[in-house]
Design a protein that fits this description.
Organism: Streptomyces lavenduligriseus
Number of helices: 12
Distance between the termini: 46 Å
Shape: globular
Oligomer: single chain
Pfam family, one: HTH_31
Structural class: alpha+beta
Order of helices and strands: HHHHHHEEHHHHHEEEH
InterPro entries: Cro/C1-type_HTH, Lambda_DNA-bd_dom_sf, MLTR_LBD
Number of strands: 5
Strand order of the largest sheet: 2-1-5-4-3
Protein name: Helix-turn-helix transcriptional regulator
Length: about 280
């Protein structure tokens, strides 16, 4: 009964969305209102057959990761997202985690940023969703699990994460990450387990982090000019701009070429061959 209601709810949500609202081309021959099942599957990163089973109420229990992807694809409100999880018999995700609800307005804006790399991250630098150009520029962040979903955690515990920035910039990046994390931890409840566990783990595993944390520097990263290493295009100098949510727990990041550099041409090339470049090992 509950899975049947889940399927009916998903169907009602997709029928209210126009293809152009989510960056798809409507085409001249559409026989259904709103999105087709295969379009929802495409937006959520699922196979069409799997999504069909869910909507029919005949499939297996959807994972929390799939529910988060469907909530974003269908532009669900926070109440609708919670209802979806309850119908599926899954616990609600903790606020600020990798399956956090992304405000539909922020998702819509990300969808419309088709010519520049953009992504939504949490205040603990957990990537929630990326557009194709962000994946091509920064790599696909969807495969990380546990503490490694946080780029700050990877930065201080995994040398491979530091390949993203030139070595000369590492010290400045480390200070900025720690100052931003201190601001995020202060905004959250003092008992927040995610922030507390992340900070404790980094203090134990990274002497560099522990030394910087002891300096008590604080500063929200609202905008940066930074250099990014790309395995095929070399170093790009970009402006990294931020749009913060009202509670400060999420931010939309987008990247524009820095004036006086050759990065504009490189970003244009990234837009043309981004899919191929995204698969290059980092």
């Amino acid at each position: 009964m509950r899975y049947t209601e889940l399927g009916a709810f998903l169907r009602s949500r997709r029928e209210r969305i126009r293809p152009e609202d989510v960056g798809l081309v409507a085409g001249p021959r559409r026989r259904v209102p709103g999105l087709r099942r295969d379009e929802v599957a495409q937006l959520a990163g699922a196979s069409a057959d799997y999504y069909n089973e869910i909507e029919r109420g005949a499939g297996s229990q959807p994972s929390e990761q799939m529910l988060a992807a469907l909530a974003r694809a269908l532009r669900l409100t926070s109440d609708e997202r919670d209802y979806l999880y309850r119908l599926a018999g899954r616990p609600l995700p903790a606020p600020g985690g990798p399956r956090s609800h992304v405000h539909p307005g922020m998702t819509d804006l990300l969808t419309r940023l088709t010519s520049t790399p953009a992504q939504v991250i949490t205040d603990l630098h957990v990537t929630l969703v990326q557009n194709p150009l962000a994946i091509a520029l920064l790599g696909d962040h969807s495969g990380f699990r546990g503490k490694n979903t946080s780029f700050i955690h990877r930065w201080f515990t995994d040398a491979d994460a530091r390949r993203l920035y030139p070595e000369a910039d590492h010290d400045a990046q480390s200070r900025a990450f720690v100052a931003d994390l201190r601001a995020a931890a202060a905004r959250r409840d003092a008992r927040d387990p995610e922030a507390r566990t992340l900070i404790a783990d980094l203090n134990a595993r990274s002497p560099e982090f522990a030394a910087l944390w002891a300096r008590h520097e604080v500063g929200v990263r609202r905008g940066d000019r930074k250099r990014i290493n790309h395995p095929a295009l070399g170093t790009l100098e970009v402006n990294c701009l931020s749009l913060l949510s009202e509670d400060g727990r999420q931010r939309l990041l987008w990247f524009t070429p820095a004036l006086g550099t050759d990065s504009a041409g490189k970003l244009e090339l990234l837009a043309v061959v981004g899919t191929q470049l995204a698969g290059i090992p980092r």
